[in-house]
TrEMBL record:
Highest taxon of the lineage: Eukaryota
Known catalytic reactions: uridine(38/39/40) in tRNA = pseudouridine(38/39/40) in tRNA
Biological process terms in GO annotation: pseudouridine synthesis; tRNA processing
Family per record: Belongs to the tRNA pseudouridine synthase TruA family.
GO function term, MF aspect, one: RNA binding
Protein's name according to its UniProt entry: tRNA pseudouridine synthase
Lineage of source species: Eukaryota, Viridiplantae, Streptophyta, Embryophyta, Tracheophyta
Record keywords: Isomerase, tRNA processing
InterPro entries: PsdUridine_synth_cat_dom_sf, PsdUridine_synth_TruA, PsdUridine_synth_TruA_a/b_dom, PsdUridine_synth_TruA_C, TruA/RsuA/RluB/E/F_N
Gene3D superfamilies tied to this protein: Pseudouridine synthase I, catalytic domain, C-terminal subdomain, Pseudouridine synthase I, catalytic domain, N-terminal subdomain
Length: 422
């Protein structure tokens, strides 16, 4: 019987077999892959634009350890966002942590909330705390709790476990889980990213827990690396992410030690005139980066080309749209308490404020703005890239060591608290 079907099996095997790959087919495929290694820009300065590899190498060939040390000093001092004021010659008192009233709701919303939650039981009886913390990115593997990694969330929740109510503690024990609290955050940060005024919340049904108790517990978690700046009891409706109206980030980029390498616009235009030689610039003009970034302010745009690790279902439409309140760049000088760094270091500071940010969006924006400024592109370079169809049109993300979440706002945004202003 088997012999009867062998001819049919052989025929089926031939039908399923893939066609032989000829040398010409392989060569064509290789050429096609080579053509799509980098996005094909068609503007006048496309020959001067760094490739993805060149941009990556330029970004990472910086003295990032000095920026990491600077952030470590800010966290250790526990001044929060006010610690950055010295960079721009401003008074720290004007940038202290705003905690008066916890005004994340309008008066009308507060009235509605008070009426709707009155005389309710169940979850409405639990106590919610708003926790503002500062942590050093170089000391942790990011915010989100992950098995086997030293994360901020994992450490915070571990020390919040002592405030969990008895019922939840028994449930965790029954499931052989550690007794930990649950911390909801305003926005997760990647490994290496520092936060000066990150906001998270914690709730419990215990009525004896005080704000000071929570602050003391978190303060013992990782001294000098993780600091609770402020803890307060807030209404049940408070959500650190959904209640937030804006987020503010700062990116500190070390500049070349030789100031002559920081090219001005005149030098960039000179290179453009000799573009047939394809001599790519080795640095950029900070003022040009500022002009490029300023075009984003006051607009609602889709930043899908500047996002990374974003699910396909969230790559189109409103999920990728962000409103940029403020986007500027300026030169500053880092100063250290360490005697080895008495002279300080020249850096470029990029300040971005938006209602929301996509994954790695800030780092891609910074890297792409630097690349476009070095190539001598127009001020609308980033706006033009919004309509690209391939994310390879933008530069690879800048190193996470330079990024810092300054603060999260629950009141209407005002430029008075920004560091880089005209």
């Amino acid at each position: 019987m088997l012999a009867k079907f062998r001819p049919l099996m052989a025929t089926a095997a031939k039908a399923r077999a893939p066609p032989a790959v000829t040398a010409s087919t392989a060569a064509a495929a290789a050429v096609e892959r080579e053509e799509h290694v980098h996005y094909k820009h068609t503007d006048a300065c496309h020959q001067l634009r760094w490739t993805a590899k060149e941009s990556y190498e330029y970004m990472y060939a910086r003295p990032w350890s000095r920026v990491v040390d600077f952030y470590a000093e800010l966290v250790r001092a526990g001044a929060g966002a006010a610690g950055l004021a010295k960079l721009f010659g401003k008074d720290e008192k004007d940038y202290t942590l705003f905690t008066a009233g916890e005004n994340y709701l309008t008066p009308s919303e507060k009235t509605t909330v008070t009426t709707s939650s009155k005389d309710r039981g169940g979850r409405w009886e639990r106590v919610t705390f708003k926790v503002v913390i500062s942590y050093h990115g170089g000391s942790f593997d990011g915010w989100q709790k992950q098995p086997g990694l030293n994360t901020v969330q994992g450490l915070v929740e571990k020390h919040l476990g002592q405030f969990v109510d008895e019922r939840k503690a028994k449930q965790l024990e029954a499931r052989s889980l550690p007794i930990e609290g649950c911390a909801v955050v305003a926005g997760r940060t990647d490994k290496g990213v520092t936060a000066l005024q990150q906001v998270c919340s914690f709730y419990t049904w215990r009525k004896d827990v005080k704000s000071g108790d929570i602050k003391d517990a978190i303060n013992e978690a990782a001294p000098d690396k993780l600091k609770p700046l402020h803890v307060s009891e807030v209404p049940r409706e408070f959500h650190p992410n959904f209640s937030a109206k804006w987020r503010r980030y700062m990116y500190i980029f070390p500049l070349d030690e030789d100031a002559n390498l920081i090219l001005g616009e005149a030098h960039s235009s000179k290179i453009l005139e000799n573009s047939e030689h394809n001599i790519k610039p080795q640095s950029f003009d900070v003022a040009k980066v500022d002009k490029i970034l300023k075009t984003l302010a006051g607009k609602t745009l889709s930043y899908k080309m500047f996002a990374r690790d974003t699910q396909a279902s969230r790559s189109v439409g409103p999920p990728t749209e962000c409103f940029m309140f403020h986007s500027r760049a300026a030169v500053a000088k880092l100063h250290y308490a360490n005697e080895d760094y008495k002279e300080g270091m020249m850096v470029m500071c990029v300040e971005l404020v938006a209602n929301r940010f996509l994954r790695k969006m800030v780092r891609v924006l910074v890297a792409t703005a630097i690349r476009e400024a070095a190539a001598g592109a127009g001020d609308d370079a980033l706006l033009n890239l919004m309509e690209a169809t391939d994310r390879r049109a933008t530069a690879p993300p800048a190193p996470p060591e330079g990024l810092c979440l300054i603060d999260v706002g629950y009141e209407d945004f005002t430029k008075q608290r920004c560091f880089i202003v005209d």
